[in-house]
């Protein structure tokens, strides 16, 4: 059941990457892929039909897996020189690691309400890092 998801992601990534290079509009392709993925996952959450959900999981995964390489290839072309590009990639990777494991840097007294959260879900990390950024109490749904 996972093969169609990856096949759709491969086809969409290759098509959008080729078109982004051809037109020179990588930023708009990144925005389109992010929007496509977001709308697809909203539809997945809103619909009850399993066939429709599966189809839009394929489209949502394709949007996510297309946006990331397009963003990286677009971002490194914004800088001249190998050193600046290398620093840019290091900053992007560092920020990604911060959001993926940012809750581990919190003080123990701030983390008590985060212990039950899933550490493997990267998209859900920014709400978990919120207490580190602001002194607001945890949301009621945690």
Order of helices and strands: HHHHHH
What's the structural domain tally? 1
Structural category is mainly alpha
Which sheet architecture does the biggest sheet show? Answer: none
Write down the Rg: 18 Å
By DSSP (H or I, 4+ residues per run), the number of helices equals 6
**What do the pLDDT scores average to?**
78
Helix content: over 70%
| Measured distance between first and last alpha carbons | 31 Å
* Unreliable residue runs: 113-118, 120-134
Secondary structure: number of strands:
0
Strand content: under 5%
Give an account of the 3D structure.
The structure is a single chain. This protein is mainly alpha-helical and 142 residues long. About 15% of the residues have low confidence. It has 6 helices and no strands. α2 runs antiparallel to α3. The protein has one domain.
